[in-house]
Automatic annotation (TrEMBL):
This is enoyl-CoA hydratase. The keyword Oxidoreductase applies. Residues 497-593, 628-691 form the 3-hydroxyacyl-CoA dehydrogenase C-terminal domain. Gene3D superfamilies: 1.10.1040.50, 2-enoyl-CoA Hydratase, Chain A, domain 1, NAD(P)-binding Rossmann-like Domain. Transmembrane segments: none annotated. Belongs to the enoyl-CoA hydratase/isomerase family. Residues 318-495 form the 3-hydroxyacyl-CoA dehydrogenase NAD binding domain. It is an enzyme of class 4 (lyase). Pfam families: 3HCDH, 3HCDH_N, ECH_1.
Amino acid sequence: MIYEGTNLSVDLLEGSIAELVFDSSGSVNKFDQQTISELASAIESIRQTKGVKGVLVRSNKPAFVVGADITEFMPLFSQSEEAILSWISKTSQVFNEFEDLPFPTISAINGFALGGGCEMALSTDLRVADTSATLGLPEVKLGIMPGFGGTVRLPRLIGADNALEWMATGRNRSANQALSEGAVDAVVKPEHLLQAARSMLTDAIAKKLDWQSRRALKQRPLKLNNNEAMMSFSTAAAFVAAQAGQHYPAPHQMVATVRESASLARDEALKLENKGFVKLAKSDACKAQVGIFLADQQVKSKAKKLAKTALHSIDKHAVIGAGIMGGGIAYQGAVKGITTVMKDISQTALELGLSEAATILKKGMSKGKVDADKMASTLNNIVPTLDMQAISDVDLVIEAVVESPEVKSSVLAELEESVSSETIITSNTSTISINHLAKALKSPQRFCGMHFFNPVHRMPLVEIIRGKETNESTVAAVVAATLKMGKTPIVVKDCPGFLVNRVLFPYFAGFSRLVLDGADFVSVDKVMEKNFGWPMGPAYLLDVVGLDTADHAAGVMSAGIPERMQKIEHDPVKLLFEANRLGQKNAKGFYNYSKDKRGKPTKLAADEAYALLLPHSKEQQAYADEEIIARLMIPMANEAIRCLEEGIVASATEADMALIYGLGFPPFRGGIFRYIETMGLKNFVALADQYAHLGAIYQISDGVREMAANNRSYFA
């Protein structure tokens, strides 16, 4: 044994080959500070061992190395720039020392080689992967860039264009894709991986493979003349600007770093990478994106723990109410292999539900993500029926009929009589009280809300709404079922609008009041999309939601929380709804919708909408971007805080993830609570106080004022 640590070891094999094996004491191999330290010690031990002629790097786990230990990032990145620079410089130097060993090296890559794992493989002279392998540099998703030499070695191996596409998008590559681009040298079946790696390394030792020139390629400047460099980096910069926009600095920094280091040899190029890494590590976007990653892990871990306590397995679903939403829910279960009965009273509705599932699958086929077998098996898992008796043996019922308390209550009462006493009953409602609906049932303890978001197949969140009489086993079983459907469940308590819609409607109210005060809704949309980062501005989002749906929900919220959400006189939403401008569903709302000559959807600000607003609005005026953002986001933030204070949601982390997954809250801002804390609680209180005269939705709670005064955090 040459070296033995907790997470890796080195042994001397036949043929004077040193085998460096990653075998973490945890479930996966990752580069935490302990592993980096052990790698440095292992390299020194290899260097000091006489007779070594080559090094083979492999994993003793199902994955090679999954990347850095992200749980260490928050405390590390909170340090000074000097401290972070010292750490990243020393760490990247470990990879240099490995690359500089005086004999050939090879990586045998199985499973995931991501981030630092991919950079480890890049530091070897040769790379062979098995067919299960996935390689990538996904650091951009955390708001950072590769820091262990990835921005230097990958462009020199596969070209700057390809490397920047890897890094700027963060998309992984299969083994064969990596082979075609030159990132690996061979791909073999898993059972042949070690044999192939040893054979290649033996050939390199025997000088049958020119490993020195491969290494030299990674250490010298990029082979680009001035024209090639200009074209390459201009194209990359334009691509990044179009895809990432202004709010995500990481891909822009990657392009700048690779461009500036193109004429430099490895060591000087790495200094630029180190500096770029530090700059990104201190950015708000990085803090938010790392926070999202950790929050996602926390939310899913909590859900999995709760799911393990479920007393019953849910293997067969029923969806009551077909159509677009019902079809989407049925598809989501069916695509995960769950037999799903889709029940309706109308054959036309059943056909619409099946059509919705088929449309989703066809889009997947057109993108190469779904094959014919998957399409057939998914559709076969959906059992359409007009007969209520067909649901008698299901484990879970999801009621998804029209958003009416009377209709839902009637349907729930009927279906309770048609299922077994063990069947769990849920309602896919966005606003109606679960406690109210539970009154229609004889066994309310097995009933809860299961709020899906539209379009179901794309939106990750499902709100699980616990009623007063819902028992723990019901919640656990529904959480388990939601995970099985491939969704992220977040459990909340019953209240008007639950969590997501409760915080959304004060945002809409802020928008309505701003428009009545003379703001142009198109300008507001542009600010909230381009500046704040929402995928859709409020007017556009209302059109997508439907002005009829929004008006109905506003009425529910007003009735439920009248002290803050009373109806607005001459609310633009109601004005448009009463004029039969329903949004996208009838192609007219704040915007008019049509298709151009090529069949591409278009939207134009509707003169008819302006005409409806004119008699009830102040004279149109320009508002500063900061004021537009404040007038919309303060109400949302205030209501989110109240939900946390009232125990509607259990933690700020869950609230953040709910808004990111349910509304598309801008990820670079990290969620509503991360946004508040990035601003600073004292600054938020001061800002809200400036607008307190506008009404109750702008007035902060005593709780947040106290937290600000005591320098407390929602994430403590």
